[in-house]
Amino acid sequence: MTRLVFPAMVLASAIALSVPAPLVAAPPSLTTWLFAEGSTNGAFGFEEEILIGNPNAVPVVVTFELFTQDGQALAPITRTVPARARFTESVRQLAGDRAGIALKLTSALPIVAERTMYWGGGLFRPEVKGYRGRVSDMRGGHSEHGTDEGARTWYFAEGEGKFFNTFISVANPGDTPANVVVSYRDDTGTEVKQAEVVPPHARRTFWPTAVLSRRLQSGRAGFATIVTSDVDVVAERQMYWGDGAPSGIRGGHAAMGVSTPALTWLFAEGIQGSLTPGGDPSFDTFVLLFNPSTGPIDVTVEFFGQAGVKLAQVVRTVEAGARGGVWAKELPALANQAFSIRATATVPFVAERAVYWRGLSEGTATAGATEPSRQWGFAEGLQGGFLRYQDDDDDDKRRFNTFFPIYNPGTTAATVTVHFYTEHGDTGVSKTITVPGQSRETIWTLLYDELANRRFATFISSTEPIVVERVVYWGKGNKAGHASLGIPLPDSLTLTAATKLPPAPQVTVREVEPSKGATTGGTEVEIEGTGLGNTELGTQVLFGGVPALRLEVEHDRELKAIAPPHALGRVDITLITRGTTVVLPGAFTYVAPGASGDDDDDEEAGSPAAGTKVEIEPRWGPAAGGTIVNVEVENVLGTVIEPGSQVFFGTAAARVVKVERNEIRVVAPAGAAGKVEVTVVTRGQVVARGVFEYF
Q1: pLDDT in tens, 18-28
Q2: Euclidean distance between CA atoms 327 and 329, whole angstroms
Q3: Which of 363, 413, 469, 601 has the lowest CB atom count within 10 Å?
Q4: Measured between alpha carbons, how far is residue 383 from residues 253, 394, 535, 538 in Å?
Q5: What CATH number matches the domain at 604-694, 3.40.630.30, 2.60.40.10, 1.10.10.10, 1.20.120.550?
Q6: Is the pTM of this model over 0.70?
Q7: d(C-alpha 208, C-alpha 97), whole Å
Q8: 568 Cβ contact list (under 8 Å, min separation 6)
Q9: Residue among 153, 169, 164 nearest 232 (CA)
């Protein structure tokens, strides 16, 4: 018999959520979703979102109930999710700044629901260009879908009490107090317990690191967890790590517990080493095994690649009440490979899996499925850049990449149809791929231009039972990420394509800044407009016919390009994106190195009053009105904006929201498409003029 011993600093690895089933994956009810974990604690930079996917042909009303750590009762809140759509809700908007929040979602029709959490250095920004507050650097994040019901027992195969900071969140959605006992089992089977009463409609957090850290030795600090209760509860586990842990946070992941051990665990995702030529990022995959039975068990772990190839197989013996596992790095055939995993035994056990960035800068945790399913659902998915997650002062715009690993454990090829639903209601795109038997294939949404710079829910159907996960990366070099198992759906749930394709964005360019740069190249040029596509595919910027040295689409309304070297003079800028070519005649002027490249005349947008410089942010908005606009005035003559000042868009007065010494915030009125003069009036005098464009 063997016992796996991990090196220090990499022992803790792998996590899971599982919905156990008999011969076919038993789908949840899809009308109730429970989450034990959640936080909007600004001290740690926590932001939380609830994502909902509606596969129905009609809108669905969803009720949110929130159970707080501090015991404060919050009134239920309802939201309407459009037909065949994805919906995003900020928990901060529902509950404010709170250390612990559990949730219950209910609906009359089937939906799928997930939770994401991000952290680091600030909070999400209002989606307003020019916002100057601190924005989260999103150094880490995790995701998980809810469970449809509570249970009296929950199992976790992963946990670590030295390098990682582990928490167990327990939510009681019922009307009766729950007497909860949490049992921690180290790698030798030694048990330590904690007990607490969780009030009705409340959440409590257990901190195993605090009670175990002195008992455990580095390199042998792992433990499994069993949560028991006298009434149904919901339990999740979170693990965080980084400089100064347990208080510091760099990376992290979360997982729902497993309510029933099983004979088989299936994972669609796994990666060892790197799949990129530069070798960055590089990953380590772990499979953690917990044996809750009274005798030792042998677990067979198999790894499958593409085209029906079994890459590796290993057997681990796990002692009674103890943990074992597999580190993919120990198997040479898995080096620099992506794979799916199957773990089996003759006695029920619990398995979890995690993928870590080499060096433990970040990690993802995901669930295992006990059986495949012909249909799967995901509420979360996003591709490209979004202003909500970006900081104007940070070069890393945290652009997202979404992947769907698919594992076909059978011997017959599966035809897989994927329906993507965007946030616009009954709008999306459908794709079809083939997955050979005993194989893994991956869908990368970057390849679908219809999804560029969009958020979406995903519903998948297959001719054969399969297992599907979703992995989301973001940031330069895919610096962070999260992963989740899909939600198995019943065959009786009809999945259909959205009736409308995502509206083809009208590609326009509204501003190029700066409009001058040195002939040696290297000037960073911001191009603002609409309808921009993916950075990697289908988008190009040319200066006088010469491609930009570097290009990044930050979101659908802004890109940055590095001007190439060119001879003196004015040149056209050509933008090619989404199959459309836009030529801006003479939009950029090359000047001698060291010559003035200032572009103040262009920046001021309009003809300001004498002695005044005005900045309007944003400088465009929908013709329907409603855009929050900041007008900032620098007046060398001493005139200032003061209470009672007015702002006009053409002849229409804007509603004033806030006035400061040199800045006034207003709500743009409705207007016709095109440019309109903006005037600021103080004491009956025009003190500033600018330009705003309606689209």
Answers
A1: 333 334 455 66
A2: 5
A3: 601
A4: 21, 19, 11, 15
A5: 2.60.40.10
A6: yes
A7: 25
A8: 519, 590, 591, 592
A9: 153
